[in-house]
UniProtKB/TrEMBL annotation, chain A:
Protein name: Sulfate ABC transporter permease
Main location: membrane
Gene this protein is translated from: ssuC
Gene3D superfamilies in the record: MetI-like
Residues spanning the membrane: 41-60, 95-114, 126-147, 254-273
Cellular compartments annotated: Cell membrane
Native species: Lentzea pudingi
Key words of the record: Cell membrane, Membrane, Transmembrane, Transmembrane helix, Transport
Cross-referenced InterPro entries: MetI-like, MetI-like_sf
Automatic annotation (TrEMBL), chain B:
Keyword flag Transcription: no
Superkingdom per UniProt: Bacteria
Protein keywords: ATP-binding, Nucleotide-binding, Transport
Designated gene of the protein: ssuB
Residue stretches making up the ABC transporter domain: 17-250
Organism of derivation: Lentzea pudingi
One GO MF term attached to the UniProt entry: ATP binding
Name listed for the protein in its UniProt record: Sulfate ABC transporter ATP-binding protein
Length: 290, 258
């Protein structure tokens, strides 16, 4: 041998020292805020400015384009009277319950489709098709089946979110590099151990993307169902609030409702899904994502 | 101790792996491809054997059959070892687990308890000199370090058995994707690990120099179908042996030119 072993050991230690990727240390919190917090605030302020200018130009009548301050007053009124919290609670708890039920149904369904060939052939494309069917299309049928009851609303929410979650899981499993389950087999993992320790964790990013989309679908399906199916029995959710605003020709209420719907959507994304996704992707070295 | 027990002990000492007339055919009828045609091979416990051949000689197929990932069409395979461990060209570490947890995964599948798992995983990482980075995830390690974690994991899965059966490590061109300096270092690392653990190794490569440097014995396979062409004892290798093996390998390959 040309080189003595202890020289090679030193070379190896040197390589290790050189090869370890340098950890980028995180910038201080104010700088991160400057980078990620400030742009959306500026964008929002610009939007408000354009809105205010349009209103001031009086191109559209007041009942079509309200003044920002009037919408703000409507929001303040509904919040200070406590009405907004009741409305938000009604809609949010429905959306969350519906979403959780969808997760419970869609996860085994997705696993079955991904791993059992017959099931995939039978209902795989149906599920993809359902994903492109607007769930509001189920509202008329659901009202005929269940009447104007919470069942109708939950049915529509489920039809909206189950396909997304199941498809996300299927995509996540399909994208697992085949070498990983193979390694599992070589290490002696049985079917169950392989699913538990290799397939499910490996499919997690795709599954999470499906969950995120499933949440978005259940939220907007819920809004569609609440707008169409209104009855005293259902109480007042965001959709009904919006519907009421429309019936009263109160554009301030309509815009305030839309604002609240958006707020929930953005809030859940920022508080729940974004941090979850970031943690999962960062652990795998996929730092390209925010 | 009874006489029968004596003989089994003797036979396990004698050979770790025995392949007799192993044949593997992929596909059926006219489109069938014979990957392996009557391969005989014996590996002693603790022996380091290099399987050498050009692409299409069925080296990987042979390794998969020994690993139990693939079944032979006909022929005999006898293993007197613990569960064989496999290392591939890619490290194939689970990207969501730390280096230590990757090694522990092998032990978990073997049913080792939590504390013992932790201890053994750290021991093995120390063996490949990666004790310091046990808590790093694969993406934080270099290619060579990842392959060493994979080596530790492979060792974990094959050296786990309590009955003292000899360990067997199957390596499918594990250093082919690494740069020359790293490969050089890892080859010496592997030799050191092999000497300390007394594991039998079947090492597949297409690099004659690598085969001669690492192995005690080099087995040359022909391509399509794969057969054993010749064997060399390379324990005290010289440049002549290297040239001779090279010549034979070239002959095997150029035989396919027509």
């Amino acid at each position: 041998m040309a080189t003595p072993p202890d020289t090679l050991d030193k070379v190896g230690a040197g390589l290790d020292a050189l090869d370890v990727p340098v950890e980028a240390h995180r910038p201080p919190i104010w700088r991160r805020f400057l980078k990620t917090g400030v742009p959306p605030i500026i964008a929002f302020a610009l939007l408000l400015g354009v809105w205010q200018a349009l209103w001031a130009s009086a191109l559209l009548p007041e009942f079509q384009l309200p003044a920002p301050v009037n919408v703000w007053n409507e929001l303040v009124r509904s919040i200070s009277s406590g009405e907004a919290f009741g409305i938000l609670w009604t809609s949010l708890h429905r959306a969350v319950l519906g979403f959780l039920a969808a997760v419970v149904i869609a996860t085994p369904l997705g696993l079955l489709i991904a791993k059992v060939r017959v099931v995939r052939a039978a209902i795989g494309s149906l599920l993809t098709g359902l994903q492109s069917l607007p769930s509001v299309a189920w509202v008329p049928a659901a009202i005929l089946w269940f009447g104007v009851t919470p069942s109708t609303i939950y049915f529509v929410v489920l039809m909206g979110s189950v396909p997304s979650i199941a498809n996300g899981l299927v995509a996540g499993i399909d994208q697992i590099p085949p070498l990983l389950p193979r390694v599992g087999r070589a290490l002696g993992a049985g079917r169950f151990a392989s699913a538990r320790h290799i397939l499910l964790p490996a499919a997690l990013p795709g599954y999470l993307a499906g969950l995120k989309q499933g949440w978005a679908f259940s939220w907007r399906s819920l809004m569609a169902a609440e707008i169409i199916a209104t009855s005293p029995q259902l109480g007042v959710g965001l959709g009904q609030y919006l519907h009421n605003g429309s019936s009263l020709n109160d554009i301030n209420m309509v815009i305030a409702a839309i604002f609240l719907i958006l707020l929930v959507g953005i809030g859940i994304e920022l508080l729940l899904f974004r941090p979850l996704e970031r943690a999962v992707l960062r652990a795998r070295g996929l730092t390209g994502a925010l | 101790m009874t006489a029968t027990l004596e003989t089994t002990v003797l036979s396990t000492v004698d050979t770790a792996v025995e392949l007799a007339g192993v044949r593997k055919v992929f596909g059926h009828g006219g489109s069938a491809v014979v990957a392996l045609d009557g391969v005989d091979l014996k590996v002693k416990p603790g022996e380091f054997v290099c399987l050498l051949g050009a692409s299409g000689c069925g080296k990987s197929t042979l390794l998969n059959i020994v690993a139990g990932l693939d079944a032979a069409t006909s022929g005999q395979l006898q293993l007197n070892t613990s569960r064989p461990a496999v290392m591939f060209q890619e490290p194939a570490l689970m990207p969501w687990l730390t280096a230590a947890r990757n090694v522990e995964l092998a032990l978990r599948f073997a049913g080792v308890g939590r504390l013992a798992r932790k201890r053994r995983a750290l021991e093995l990482l120390e063996l490949v000199r990666l004790g310091d980075v046990a808590d790093k995830r694969p993406h934080e390690l270099s290619g060579g370090m990842r392959q060493r974690v994979a080596l530790a994991r492979a060792l974990a899965s094959t050296t786990v058995s309590a009955d003292g059966a000899p360990a067997l490590l199957l390596m499918d061109e594990p250093f082919a994707a690494l740069d020359a300096i790293t490969r050089d270092v890892l080859q010496s690392e592997l030799l050191r690990v092999w000497e300390t653990t007394n594991t039998a190794i079947i090492f597949v490569t297409h690099d004659v120099r690598e085969a001669v440097r690492l192995g005690q014995r080099v087995v040359l396979l022909s391509s399509r179908p794969g057969r054993v062409v010749r064997e060399w004892d390379v324990r005290d290798s010289s440049d002549e042996v290297l040239d001779e093996i090279n010549t034979h390998l070239r002959e095997v390959i150029s035989g396919h030119a027509s």
